[in-house]
Structure to design on (273 residues):
């Protein structure tokens, strides 16, 4: 099996797919920049996954099923999505937001290609920054009284489990999706991360995170490694030169703001509803 993945590792749904591919040692290539075909069809939407050159899939749960994982119920999926509360805090500090993307930009391609990718990645970052702030403005989203509450369902599920993970002795769909969201929260620390670290009610969740981190200690996109035990140091960091290329791209986005914003709104119209 050979897999192509378009997506950025700050997305929980991309993370779920990449975690699955890593755990099964499936050969795969990750693209942080969409091809023109993908961009024209779906805009900045991720993940987009092609398995053995078959037509692309864009729904992470269906992709996981094609990789051999069990289906997830609608109620479980709602509970998974419920743990994403707090994501809108990612843009509270714009400098930290852009820095987080810069440090996780392309660090693998050859020099020239890497520079092109990291310059173009600035548009995806600009797009996400605008999208998050637009949703915040429209929804007037209010924080819950306690961010730990959103994990109580999974604390209960883990308490009932007699296995290492939610789905058995090996991570399953629920494990991958939930751990993907935790990677999202840790990639640019937001209030739910503090709740996960310190809420006395979430002892089993923290124990499960430790098991997942031990399992994925060699996974290069493990953002949670510095926040939970066992501590895991990330190795896939972008060089200073490539971060400069990325920031040059960001400067270009803001200098050409009217055109950049128009392209963002065009891209939003392409996203599947």
């Amino acid at each position: 099996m050979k897999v192509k993945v378009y997506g950025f590792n700050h997305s929980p749904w991309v993370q779920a797919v990449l975690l699955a591919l890593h755990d099964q040692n499936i050969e795969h290539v990750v693209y942080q920049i969409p091809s023109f075909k993908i961009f024209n069809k779906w805009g900045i939407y991720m993940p987009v996954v092609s398995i053995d050159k078959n037509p692309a899939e864009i729904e992470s749960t269906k992709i996981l099923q094609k990789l051999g994982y069990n289906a997830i119920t609608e109620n479980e999926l709602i509970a998974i999505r419920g743990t994403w509360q707090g994501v809108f805090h990612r843009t509270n500090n714009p400098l930290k937001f852009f820095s987080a993307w810069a440090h996780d930009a392309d660090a693998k391609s050859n020099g020239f290609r890497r520079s092109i990718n990291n310059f173009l990645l600035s548009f995806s970052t600009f797009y996400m920054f605008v999208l998050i702030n637009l949703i915040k403005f429209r929804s007037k989203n209010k924080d819950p009284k306690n961010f730990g509450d959103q994990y109580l369902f999974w604390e209960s599920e883990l308490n009932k489990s007699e296995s290492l993970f939610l789905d058995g002795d090996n991570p399953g769909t629920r494990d991958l999706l939930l751990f993907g969201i935790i990677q999202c929260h840790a990639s640019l620390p937001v209030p739910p991360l503090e709740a996960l670290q310190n809420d006395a009610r979430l002892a089993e969740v923290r124990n499960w995170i430790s098991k997942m981190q031990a399992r994925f200690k060699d996974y290069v996109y493990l953002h949670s490694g510095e926040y939970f035990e066992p501590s895991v140091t990330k190795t896939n960091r972008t060089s200073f030169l490539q971060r400069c290329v990325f920031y040059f791209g960001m400067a270009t986005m803001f200098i050409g703001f009217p055109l950049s914003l128009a392209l963002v709104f065009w891209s939003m119209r392409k996203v599947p509803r």
Summary: Residues 111-139 form the longest helix (29 residues). Residues 74-226 form a domain with the Glutathione S-transferase Yfyf (Class Pi); Chain A, domain 2 fold (CATH 1.20.1050). The CA atoms of residues 210 and 228 lie 7 Å apart. Strands lie at 2-6, 27-31, 48-51.
